[in-house]
Amino acid sequence: MHTVTRTEPPDTAAAPAGIVPLELTINGARHALRLEPWTSLLDLLREHLQLTGTKKGCDHGQCGACTVLVNGTRINACLALAVALDGAEITTVEGLARDGELHPMQQAFVDHDALQCGYCTPGQICSALGLLDEGHAHCRDDVREQMSGNLCRCGAYVNIANAVDAVRREQACSQPDSAANGQPTNAAREHAR
């Protein structure tokens, strides 16, 4: 977990003209910052905080390489102004591993060989985590459709879908069955697909 922060001490003094104070929690670390209002979240992460796992691909929100989680929701960091996220919790690929152990999604990408050059991988992983939290992916086809905003120029799509679907299935199996309240069980839903 990232514990060293690059922050300025918070104060109540007025910021210089054109500079906006804000606070963000990034990968569990609180940051008090002063930024130009036009600074994107992507530029804040990469250029101000040296969190370079999040990649700058197209810088137009079309490739997904810059996908991060903001309050648990996946967004393209290149399209978000950092000052608009004051008070938010941001998770980047650097914040996923715990105690030297990869997050299950990161491990699934390794296990399923879901990368080639690796440039898109941080955005793919963050997008996959957001996708699963959204709860709309009920089968592999849903995973493929809802990951379509993340491009892989190497063409590792089959293995990426396999990795994400493996984690989705594992999560479905670990959730308690709903049969007692008339809901189909996860196993029944999986079998129906």
- Strand-residue proportion: 5-15%
What structural class is derived from the secondary structure elements? alpha+beta
Side by side, the strands of the main sheet go 2-1-5-3-4
The second-level CATH architecture of the largest domain is Roll
CATH fold naming of the largest domain: Ubiquitin-like (UB roll)
Distance between the termini: 38 Å
Q: What is Rg?
A: 19 Å
* Helical fraction: 25-40%
- Number of individual domains: 2
Question: Would you tell me the overall average pLDDT?
Answer: 87
Gross geometry: globular
Main β-sheet: number of strands, strand sense, barrel status? 5 strands, mixed
Number of helices: 6
Low-confidence stretches: 1-5, 178-193
- Total count of strands: 5
CATH hierarchy, class of the largest domain: Alpha Beta
CATH superfamily label of the largest domain: Beta-grasp domain
Q: Overview of this structure, please?
A:
- It is a single chain.
- By secondary structure, this protein is α+β, with helices and mostly antiparallel strands.
- The chain has two domains: 20-95, Ubiquitin-like (UB roll), CATH 3.10.20.30; 104-176, [2Fe-2S]-binding domain (DNA polymerase, domain 1, Orthogonal Bundle), CATH 1.10.150.120.
- 32% of the residues lie in helices and 13% in strands.
- It is built from six helices and five strands, in the order ββαβββααααα.
- Strands 2-1-5-3-4 form a five-stranded mixed sheet, with helices on one face.
- Strand 1 and strand 2 (29-35) form a beta hairpin.
- The longest helix is centred in the C-terminal third of the chain and has 18 residues, at 157-174.
- The radius of gyration is 19 Å and the shape is globular.
